[in-house]
User: What shape does this take?
Amino acid sequence: MINTYNETHLHRTLKEIYAGKHEGAQKEAPCGHFIADILLSDGGIIEIQTGTLASLAPKIAYFLAEKRKIRVVHPLAVEKYVETTDESGKILRRKKSPKKLNLISVFRELTKLYPYLLDRNFTLEIVETKIIEERIDYGSTEKADNSRRRHKKTWNKTDKRLDELGKATVLHGKTAWKKLIPTALLKKDREFTAPEFHRELLELYPKAKRQESSVMLWVYVKMGFFERTGKKKGNAFLYSPL
Assistant: This one.
């Protein structure tokens, strides 16, 4: 039996939802050198990745080399609440996290996956979610297992719980990936700098951060949508669509 004790509620629930969409799907199925979250009856794979996407690179490469279709489902916490209880389970406090994620935030997770993003057998599904991060406050740093933390805390994270599913963005093939780019940046002979890329991006994603847009541009260059021309505008490099 596969050990699933370390699964979060978020991962476990999404696995149940996606497996339930496919008749004959097997969960936690051995598949070559790896364990597939969901193995479909046609040999396709669904991976639920609640952590960093980069860690999936070896698994994705293996399944694609096996000529299997693989869909990676990645929950994006667009809204998160932190729920803290004491050891008996009594809720001490519940607050909304100030951290804001958007579709562009995912690109920092894709810097090691770009070789696979346009593979005909690869699909990335980003699902907006509302999650609850569960914590237990022990009342003392001695009881909390936080030896690796620089600043000692009295609480530990214990789980992530799915509260609500929202919009899903399915990325498969060039057309789908192009839809994330402002059309003005795809015009023939258009040249732009990274700051100009960010300003255009804000029209579609008002909360996109400058650093996030720079990573997004880097990924799209690696995917072959843009190239760095070798010219500069001031101190900034110029890019153009291919």
In short: The helical segments are 9-19, 57-65, 173-178, 194-204, 210-223. The domain at 9-179 is CATH 3.40.1350 (Trna Endonuclease; Chain: A, domain 1). The first strand starts at residue 26 and ends at 31. The mean pLDDT is 92.
